Amino acid sequence: MTKTDLMSIEKIENAIYVIRGEEVMLDHDLAFLYGVETKTLNRAVKRNLQRFPPDFMFQLTEDEAEALRCQIGTSNKGRGGRRYLPHVFTEPGVAMLSSVLSTERAVAVSIEMIRAFIKLRELFGSNAELARQLDELESKYDKQFKVVFDAIRELMAKPVRDCKQITG
After folding, report:
1. What does DSSP say about strands 22-26 and 87-89: parallel, antiparallel, or unpaired?
2. Which residues of 10-24 are buried (b: 16+ CB within 10 A; e: fewer)?
3. Which site in 86, 91, 132, 152 is 20 to 30 Å from 74, CA atoms measured?
4. 163 Cβ partners below 8 Å, 6+ apart?
5. CA-CA distance, 69 to 75, in Å (whole number)?
6. For 21-48, what is the mean pLDDT?
7. Integer angstrom CA distances of residue 137 from 78, 144, 154, 158, 168
8. By the 8 A CB rule, do 112 and 2 touch?
9. Which three-class secondary structure state does DSSP give residue 80?
10. Predicted confidence (pLDDT) per residue in 42-77, tens digit
11. What is the torsional sign of CA 84, 101, 35, 69?
12. Is the entire prediction scored with pTM above 0.70?
């Protein structure tokens, strides 16, 4: 399988949501990436629940699922949509999925998804380091550069990517 067969890291990043303060991916997005039906993915997980503690996977509440439905425009409950609340997987849960869906595609997709999580973590980490360095510079120079530093801080405050925060 070539890398071109897999979704790009950017597309994977767009499928990562922040729910309960955790970066997670939805079961149906993962099923699509792995090339299986959502019910097949969830069935494999259910058969291997001991591999998925709460910090690897959790099920959304009604409120979280409704907020997500409103945000991404999925179908309304009872209108051809899901019968069950979605499961979401954290980075270690995504890695564990490759062991329960042990196809070649599952392993390759898991590697790309872990890379996407790492890239996001690096982006947020580099922004924090930049802020620290800016504080250091600001303390060394007098107030005439305050406008410049304020402008740089304003630019840094803009999100690196549209982080989809879901609240219940």
Report:
1. antiparallel
2. eebbebbbebeeebb
3. 91
4. 18
5. 7
6. 90
7. 57, 13, 16, 21, 40
8. no
9. coil
10. 999 999 999 999 999 999 999 998 888 776 655 555
11. positive
12. no
